Amino acid sequence: MSVEVYSIGEILVDIIPVEPGNIVEGKKYEVHFGGAPANVAVGVSKLGHKSGMIGAVGNDPFGKFLIETLKNYGVDYRFVKIKNIRTTLAFVTLSEEGEREFFFYRKPWVETADTQLETSDIDLGEISKSKVLHFTGFALSYPPIRNTILETIRRLSNKVVISYDPTYRSDIWLDPREAVMLHKEVLNYVNFISMSLDELEAFYKNTNYKEIARKLIDEYENITTVAIRLGAKGAYVRTREVEVFVPAFKVKSIDTTGAGDAWTAGFIVSYFLEDNDIKKSAIFANAVAGIVVTRHGAITAIPERRTVDNFIKNSNIIIY
User: Fold this and answer.
1) 274 near 285, Cβ under 8 Å?
2) Can you state the angle between helices 176-186 and 197-204, rounded to 10 degrees?
3) 3-class secondary-structure state, position 308
4) H-assigned helices in 187-248
5) Any idea of the CA torsion for 188, 189, 191, 192, to the nearest 10 degrees?
6) For the segment 51-83, what is each residue's pLDDT rounded down to a tens digit?
């Protein structure tokens, strides 16, 4: 099977506490696979489609762990390059409600591997054979990976569906205005945007998601689909023809790490790969994310396809 979806950007290790609490309270931590685009790649694979990851890891045990994890989940890792530098780390702190904050060992604080992806590390001809290329705004924060992604989406625009998640993390942007500038630049090339309410606030100082989605569709002829992830409330999706709000499934959340990435993977699979309508696709994505938040970890929490289908079936939601 050829690769249908490539993700490009950060691949890193999440260090996650076993119990909620402050990062320095001496609690036990677990090592987890992480990085938003890498999570999406694994999600697409677990949901039954062929995915590939494009990124850089360190020449250390963490880097080997990340590559081995991709391999174990059936993700094509040909374009994951090993750099002679340490793998990027993200310490995750959890609240009692399962909400998370991030503390990064990465630029601008220390030099690590994920930023070191060069244009020469990838094969645009091979990537152009896929259906979707997914990337994040997180990876745009520092060169050389910033330049690699910008060059890639410019050259593959109109050849594959360009999918974008801003994945804004204030800890890595010394100047938030630079994040806004780069966000505006990539909007000229993307076709699908998946955003959270926090990102609407960061980039637009406005959480009126219907207004922002409408403006994006109106102002950028290349943008065909805008999805706003509303957390426990559900999701809103707009295209040029239709808009839908789909409420979230009622579940008990224990860890929201990776839930947005799982939602995006689910939507890409249903809408862009399987050609379902946006309502059915949003319900499917809500189900994937709804299952994820009831489990610990990011990719380990992503369910297999059969689990998602049974979850929707048992909820008695009409999706047609």
Assistant:
1) no
2) 100
3) helix
4) 197-204, 209-219
5) -80
6) 999 999 999 999 999 999 999 999 999 999 999
